[in-house]
Fold this sequence. Notes:
By secondary structure, the protein is α+β, with helices and mostly antiparallel strands.
Amino acid sequence: xxxxxxxxxxxxxxxxxxxxxxxxxxxxxxxxxxxxxxxxxxxxxxxxxxxxxxxxxxxxxxxxxxxxxxxxxxxxxxxxxxxxxxxxxxxxxxxxxxxxxxxxxxxxxxxxxxxxxxxxxxxxxxxxxxxxxxxxxxxxxxxxxxxxxxxxxxxxxxxxxxxxxxxxxxxxxxxxxxxxxxxxxxxxxxxxxxxxxxxxxxxxxxxxxxxxxxxxxxxxxxxxxxxxxxxxxxxxxxxxxxxxxxxxxxxxxxxxxxxxxxxxxxxxxxxxxxxxxxxxxxxxxxxxxxxxxxxxxxxxxxxxxxxxxxxxxxxxxxxxxxxxxxxxxxxxxxxxxx
Length: 338
């Protein structure tokens, strides 16, 4: 176990390196931080930190930089989450409050996260597999043509056209709409098939074919839309950190193009707490020089998706964690009120 003084030295090294982008020497540490010990003692502490693998010497200069292991200890034990200022919080709320629908919420969230953190922002759409039905609308477009509109508790709207084998009257349509909503509103998507399987039997013989077609379209919608969707923004921010990536930034950009990789990075929405993956903790080789900060968001206590940022390991972790957490909280409030 490291002593409290050596933990303080590590914290100072991380803070200085993130702020200056330059390897940190013992003389600079004693000048910038009130460590209460001589430069010689700091040099000794840095030697121990280097032996333990928390810092490393990038080249022949006297300075040291944090390793993935050093950043990990900093995040786990030394870094508090930096709260946003009141103006920042008001700016987030005013920017997100004017969103007109779910697509707008997600798009604004990506832009906001990228601007706040100056990193690459990733936002996952609310998953239908974790959503519940808010309302089903059935509209008559022609005697034998209907529109099905499915609205989820997270504000997602799916529309489908249905061509019926025979005309379907307004009375029957209103009856089907009422019965559908009474059975499935407030229920999880996974429960819907069982809840509606006997519904055609409760209609007159001449209407059962159309009811069956409507239900088939509804169930197809639930299956089709389980594919996870992501929006990414701020990729150009990575160009500011070119020297933070060994050799080239290309592997990072290629990894960010693979949505499967990004979904794995964000993690499962069932685990809504904040996760920070640093450097080689990211399984994808192209992202070994990056860190990922992600957290779940939702319309209640349960997360329906994740959002987060990807940037170099030389990251302002307290500030980034604070921004990601604050934005997730506001998005959750918007979904709850929508």
